[in-house]
Amino acid sequence: MARDMRVAVIGCGKIGATHAEAASALPGVELVAVCDRTVERAKELAERFPGVRVYDAVDRMLADADLDAVLVATAHKHHFSPAMQAIHSGVAALVEKPLTTSLAEANELVVAAERAGVTLGTVFQRRFFPAAQRMHDAIAAGRLGGVVAAECLAQLGRDRTYFERDDWRGSWTGEGGGALLTMAIHYVDMMNWMLGTPTSVYGRWATLKHADYIDVEDVAGAVVTYAGGAIATIQAMTTFENGFASEPSPAVAYRAPGFRLAVHGTAGHSVGLQESPELAQAVTDLWTFDGEEELARRWHEEEHGRPSLPGFHRIQIAEFLDAVRAGRPPAITGRDGLTALEVVKGVYLSQDRLAPVSLPMSDDDRRDADRLTEGAA
Ligand SMILES: NC(=O)c1ccc[n+]([C@@H]2O[C@H](COP(=O)([O-])OP(=O)(O)OC[C@H]3O[C@@H](n4cnc5c(N)ncnc54)[C@H](O)[C@@H]3O)[C@@H](O)[C@H]2O)c1
Q: In which residue ranges is the amino acid composition biased (Basic and acidic residues) (predicted)?
């Protein structure tokens, strides 16, 4: 029998704990180590998992721990270095979104992994929602005809406390982007998965509500075209009442609606899902096929009101490790992470140029887009 997959978490902050919990619950997987440059964080997380070793440096852990895979859950600007070190050590890397904040670095990771034959994946766990899988299946089976349009909404709430909780959030140098890069990117990836290859993006962004304490976008709108001809719109904002507030004010009638993706086809049919509130499992909210009303009602009953963490991380990590074992590409690759990043950074670049940006970007456009948002945390 094959040995258990030996896995480590790098970055023991909020989502690192979710990764550790998810990985440790999987059969055939051993969480052997956790690593954080602030070693107290790694120690604190390791206490919950007896026998797990603690490291404060990625290179030492890679040399020491005989790993099959790392789960990279560091802050955005610190995804590249641990992932690249893993690839150079022949260790598979599943990297939190966004894959990186720099297109040059994202591309370097993808190329290095392909050359070394090392599995690289990007965390977009929301693709595993049953509501997303059934939309994808319906589109892939041609039930919509050709796709003509999609709308992708990330209508979210954040407040000052959220941006000040982690020193890297809210700035171009620390986070490298805002509502689009950190939040909407999940659904941008989901839309790419359903619609195919994006061919151009034109968008605008602004900082209208949180400008006293952040400089990244808190609102953005974009039009994305796809190889099959479909025209999609994205709207992203973090300007609602904080969707994460533990004690929401009863006076606030309209809290952050959450995420939504709907896709429409030439056959006159539409499919859609909604994640509301944010971090709940998304449910099918649009399914126009005659005779399937009862089915849609049943899905809603079964899937409504469920939390999405850590269950869908567990599903993605399991799928990724299966791919590593089998030597096949994972469901969500490093290249998918690069494509989603190009759509997002294409919005920043198109605003700078007041012109649409062709995708995939040329090397020059990548350089220009990176120059707009560069800076180390
Ligand atoms: N998939 C999701 O739904 C989801 C949800 C939340 C966060 N995330 C992503 O996870 C990442 C982390 O977010 P968070 O909220 O957990 O951040 P966090 O600030 O709570 O944790 C990041 C941790 O990484 C550590 N770290 C930074 N650089 C390091 C390095 N070079 N080596 C080792 N450790 C290092 C920090 O000390 C910190 O403990 C972000 O990129 C974010 O986008 C994804």
A: 363-377
Give, using CA atoms, the residue closest to atom 38 of ligand 1: 13
Does ligand 1 lie within 6 Å of residue 36's CB atom?
yes
Across the range 130-149, mean pLDDT stands at: 98
Whether the per-residue pLDDT at 249 is higher than 60: the answer is no
16 pocket-lining for ligand 1 (C-beta < 6 Å): yes
Q: Which fold has domain 126-308?
A: Dihydrodipicolinate Reductase; domain 2 (3.30.360)
Q: Where are the domains of the chain?
A: 5-125+313-330, 126-308
Ligand 1: nearest atom to the Cα of 41: 39
Token pair of 292 as six digits: 């399937």
What's domain 5-125+313-330's architecture? Answer: 3-Layer(aba) Sandwich (3.40)
C-alpha torsion 236→224→232→158, nearest 10: -10
CA 331 to chain centre: 13
Whether residue 185 has its Cβ less than 6 Å from ligand 1: no
Closest CA to 154 of 180, 192, 172, 128: 180
Residue 277's pLDDT band (cuts 50, 70, 90): confident
CA 273, CA 206: separation in Å to the nearest integer? 27
> Quick one: residue 376, left, alpha or beta (phi over 0 = left, psi -120 to 50 = alpha)?
beta
Helical H segments across 214-328, by residue range? 293-303, 311-326
Residue whose CB lies within 8 A of the most ligand 1 atoms, among 19, 55, 74, 126, for a mutation test: 74
CB of residue 182 inside a 6 A radius of ligand 1: yes
pLDDT tens, residue by residue, 201-211: 999 999 999 99
φ, ψ of residue 154 to 5 degrees: the values are -130, 90
Q: Is the CB of 76 under 6 A from ligand 1?
A: yes
